[in-house]
Amino acid sequence: MPIVGGSCLPRIRFRRRLVVVFVLTGQDACFGAGPTIPPAYVVVGFSALMSIGGRRGDYGGSVPNSFGTLISSLALYAGSLFITVAKQFVESALYHSKDLVIGNGPQGPFDHLFELKSPLYKTGSLQKFNPGDLFLYAVTDSGMNKKWGRSIKDAVKAAIEGGATIVQLREKDAETREFLEAAKACVEICKSSGVPLLINDRIDVALACNADGVHVGQSDMPAWEARELLGPGKIIGVSCKTLAQAEQAWKDGANYIGCGGVFPTRTKAANPTLGIEGLRTVCLASKLPVVAIGGINAGNAVSVMELGLPNLKGVAVVSALFDRECVATETRNLRSILENAHSRS
């Protein structure tokens, strides 16, 4: 593009270099379904206009001063907007990765940045995932609730009263509308108690009821796709049995993995048993916090907690809580057993 007025040449070249820096800095940021950098393109467009607009002798053009002033103001606004977006993206990456574990301690904040594929959300909406919430993980079951004549809402309320630290709604037999209404009620119960609520598998229900996150299995929606839909502020757990699955969960942006079945269970059909040693192997290799699941009850929970592994944060329980007459009593008893075992390990 021809430039009139040699005195303005260095200034325009500087702007072009600055735009290139903006573009290169934001090129991998994700917006919507693919990598885009709208604010940078806006800056490029305005910078091009600035090279032909403005005051004579300043930008080299003959366009009226008011137009040049307007373009300059818009360019400054666009640059400010992009800096804000870039700052939020970096903050999001730092927040998302800081609790992931490599080896025996937390990783450096940028180690996971290259794996972050989440869409950009306002950092103010992010909530901190606390791995300690996995300590007593209550997983509901629609069949058991029907057997004992309980609603999902009553089952969740009782589990929280007994000391559950996180709740997952796993209602495979419930109709969508019925499940959604129950989930909304459970969200309110959990929110008032400060207990996170996750939805098993159903990303749509989790979004509609504004749950704290989801738990997905190996045959469900991949964790990275769930992360793109839910954003970095939601909790995502993944069921894993192998070292490769645990590694993939970390790469996909999961917050934790559920490892099992540790013991034989009738809750999930055709579920191979890993045993205590299998759990130990996955925990030692996992970069994420782990919750043990599968056939865990008051009689064997101690053997799980006595492994004493730093990233084994708790146990997930289904039938030992919900296939009982009094959910609150069973939860309270198991909580006491876990706390005693944890204090000794």
From TrEMBL:
<keyword id="KW-0460">Magnesium</keyword>
<keyword id="KW-0479">Metal-binding</keyword>
<keyword id="KW-0808">Transferase</keyword>
<keyword id="KW-0784">Thiamine biosynthesis</keyword>
<feature type="domain" description="Thiamine phosphate synthase/TenI">
    <location>
        <begin position="136"/>
        <end position="321"/>
    </location>
</feature>
<dbReference type="InterPro" id="IPR034291">
    <property type="entry name" value="TMP_synthase"/>
</dbReference>
<dbReference type="Pfam" id="PF02581">
    <property type="entry name" value="TMP-TENI"/>
</dbReference>
<dbReference type="GO" id="GO:0009228">
    <property type="term" value="P:thiamine biosynthetic process"/>
</dbReference>
<dbReference type="GO" id="GO:0004789">
    <property type="term" value="F:thiamine-phosphate diphosphorylase activity"/>
</dbReference>
<dbReference type="InterPro" id="IPR036206">
    <property type="entry name" value="ThiamineP_synth_sf"/>
</dbReference>
<dbReference type="InterPro" id="IPR013785">
    <property type="entry name" value="Aldolase_TIM"/>
</dbReference>
<comment type="pathway">
    <text>Cofactor biosynthesis; thiamine diphosphate biosynthesis; thiamine phosphate from 4-amino-2-methyl-5-diphosphomethylpyrimidine and 4-methyl-5-(2-phosphoethyl)-thiazole: step 1/1.</text>
</comment>
<dbReference type="GO" id="GO:0009229">
    <property type="term" value="P:thiamine diphosphate biosynthetic process"/>
</dbReference>
<dbReference type="GO" id="GO:0046872">
    <property type="term" value="F:metal ion binding"/>
</dbReference>
<protein>
    <recommendedName>
        <fullName>thiamine phosphate synthase</fullName>
        <ecNumber>2.5.1.3</ecNumber>
    </recommendedName>
</protein>
<dbReference type="InterPro" id="IPR022998">
    <property type="entry name" value="ThiamineP_synth_TenI"/>
</dbReference>
